[in-house]
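INFO batch 0412 | record 1 of 1 | parsing
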Amino acid sequence: MTAPLDGYTVIDLSSGIAGAYATRLLADGGADVIKVEAPEGDPLRRWSASGADIGTDADGALFAFLAGGKRSVALDPGAPDDMRWLDGLVAAADAVIWSPESVVAQSVAPEDLFRRHPHLIVTTITPFGLDGPWSDRAATEFTLQAWSGGAIGIGRGVQDRAPVSIGGQVGEWLAGAYAAAMTLAFRARALRDGHGELVDLSALEAQILGLTYYPVTYFEMLGRPWRSERRPTVPGVAQAADGLVALGCGTAQQWWDLCAMSGHDEWIDENSELTITEQANLHAEELDSWLREQRADDIRELATAFRIPTSPVGNGENVTGMDHFVARQSFVRNPRDGFTQPAAPYRFSGPELRPPAPAPRLGEHTAQVRAAELVPRTAPSGVPGGDRLPFSGLRVLDMTTFWAGPSCTHPLGMLGAEVIHLESTPKPDGTRLIAGIPATVEQWWERSPIFSALNTNKKSLTLDFQTEQGRDLLRRLIATCDVVVENFTPRVIEQIGLDFDSLRELREDIVMVRMPGFGLDGPWRDNPAFAYIIEDASGLSWLTGYPDRTPFEPYSIGDPNAGIHALSGLMLALEHRRRTGEAVLVEAAMVDAALNIAAEQVIEYSAYGALLQRDGNRGPAAAPQNIYQSAGIDEFGRDDSWVAIAVSTDAQWAALRSALGEPQWAMDPQLDTAAGRRAHHELIDEKLVAWCRTRSGDDIVETLWPTGIPVAKVMQPHRQLELPQVRFRRFFEHVGHPVNNPAPHSTLPVSLANGPRTLHRHPAPLLGEHNHELLTELGLSDEEIATLAEDGVIGTEPGVGGRRKAAR
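INFO prediction complete | emitting tokens
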């Protein structure tokens, strides 16, 4: 059986993690990815986060992972004949992935590529986008975290220290995941009408979506930020008697259960006006003391019994040996170099991904590709017109809740699919309930900014599928749908008889996407999981924070990262169905997606014996790199303003030295190299602390940025709309609502040449807003629908469902 993208040709004109990961995902899907390199090769071939010595004839392990299954051709971008041949190669391809770090890409303007070859999907990955006031400004993944608000995230860190970024260059991986998904999305439209697309992806916008929790919508709708100060998750990553353990409370019930588990029933206050986090912080010291007296395994066993989210704390050394990942064969050997790497981020029944294949040596396939006959793809006729939405005509049943699942279905709705969001009145979507709106407020459940931000363009149907009537209607609805997406723990779907085999009986070509936290099998399969537990288990937390304390949980990326990977898996499944007519089950476990973007830890340890460690705001890609306090009182009345500076090249160091006035300490020749600057990081930090402390953030940015130095103000997340680049690209669209005031809503991290121009066409639905419309389509009469409402099977407000109503 062939892989879903067999016959699809992608030209890789990128360098760096983001482009390499995007094309790796496409290659795994079966695409023929041809990596075009200059004679000196992609700099990623020489990269090691630990600084391992890579032999002159060898490639770095991370490159060997990311380039697996690709072909490499080498050409001279200064040679006209080579560039003419490259143009012919592009003309015969289906897609191009382009980033400005590639030496070859610098000689090929993406706009020109798309103009001359309008059948192509040209996906560009840049820090800020191809145009706009910041399009030519220097940036690194680290400074983008600061601009996005991701360096603070959902209150990550502690107030008495600098904000702390998420470790591991997660923004690069996330941008790559989005680039792959958006390439596949617009491929679906190209299959329909032959017209390609220029997909202009902004890494900043990808970080806004992946590292923050819709803070602008929240602030604009409620008039207050989600959180105004930094504080650690409690209990979060905790110190047990014999090591670290992760515990999380995502609901009030889980907090109450944790109180009971630790022997403190007196902490339970069902009428408290404080959030779960605020209540937990009141008892942090006592809880930490109790945890330090327990063995980590005992804590996890207890927590599992209480159904409190829990996991070990993974890192590059221990994660491969965890029983769950061993049972699921979550890691495989690199086929060329033998180190350990993650398996693919999703699994299928039906189609097969391409098995792990070796990475190419530099120019290994040049002669082979040059000898092949290049047949240009058919140019589309006329100009693009009509429907520019890739997923028009696709019907999706969205049985998801909170953040991860909707992060998969929301892009489908923005790009044209009919998405039916299923809830019940006993258990509405959890994001309706987390805004802190008092129950005394009229229609309080409709006022959640998080629900609004994640569910535009969807329809709402409420069905209590714990009743036989509800399950019967649900089955009838499924028969009309192309896709079903769910993110319950596995036992829930199976208990109500809606597993994949059951769905195939209802519709023979159904595509089902299941998004459990830990997968459909293995020892942890039924464990509840939120973003932070996934981050803890996979190693994402391990690299976040300071070396002298337990790790901070990113508390963000675990969910949206799972959603965007599931979206790619879904599109591969749809392509398989298009080719074969077969039904497909996609298993897109949250933790598998997280293990992939944390891959560098396992790779560095297995290839070089190097255990990567958290180091505050320092990192392997730049030196100096840190967050420095600037002068100025913030909007909360605190002396708490910061800037991020990252020097990733010797030229940038020379520019920084000049901007500082060439002080004597900076003229030391030892600082002219990255190794020298890293060795003297303490000295550089000391001097930059003093220099920044007397200047405002705006002054620092205006002094350094025009000279080419990556710098950023550390933004409060709810101030994202104030960024000129974000406004220029219209990343936020104002959305009206029948209950709430209009508010800006984030879209997708791409600007498009051929539309659609508007992504939020309808506001998020009211609870049960489309009950009558959808049930009428199933053949129910007005009287039957009214009876369902009277019996509590359907409804438009949170409350008692049909099963419990019948039992009264």
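INFO post-check: The longest strand covers residues 32-37.
INFO record closed
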